[in-house]
Automatic annotation (TrEMBL):
The chain crosses the membrane at residues 12-29, 41-61, 87-107, 119-151. It is found in: Cell membrane. This is MgtC/SapB/SrpB/YhiD N-terminal domain-containing protein. Its main location: membrane. It comes from Paenibacillus marchantiophytorum. Keywords: Cell membrane, Membrane, Transmembrane, Transmembrane helix.
Amino acid sequence: MSQIWHIHAGGIGLRLLLSVVFGGAIGLERGWRNRDAGFRTHILVCMGSALFMMISIFGFGDQHVDASTHPVDPLVEPNLLADPSRLAAQVISGVGFLGAGMIMQNGKTVFGLSTAASIWVVAAIGLCMGAGFFFCGVTAACLVLIVQMIFSVKG
């Protein structure tokens, strides 16, 4: 691996495995309810988010500058144009757009909102797993499953 990566293969594997397990668990619930975005879709969104988060954290290691000891001067460092941690923010926007495609209307009935929301939250879980924020990601995944399974009654 390049020297900019400050994570070992086991850390990468754990992050990806957890994103597959918990994204898949939420996707299974959606699949059991015969929703369009099910098992595979949720796994791919969650794992993709984890990958983007790892790239955000570890992929630009040589560009992270401590502003307190080394202020960034664009005239001195012209190649440091953006904060690479913003990559994760683009996941939120992109997956929001993907989820919006799941929302359909038939007359006065709107459906697909829960599936769209689950895709969006699975992306957040993937970002947590990719960041190594495991407790938050696992807790969120468990809560999503509880919400999707228990609160499924329309009121």
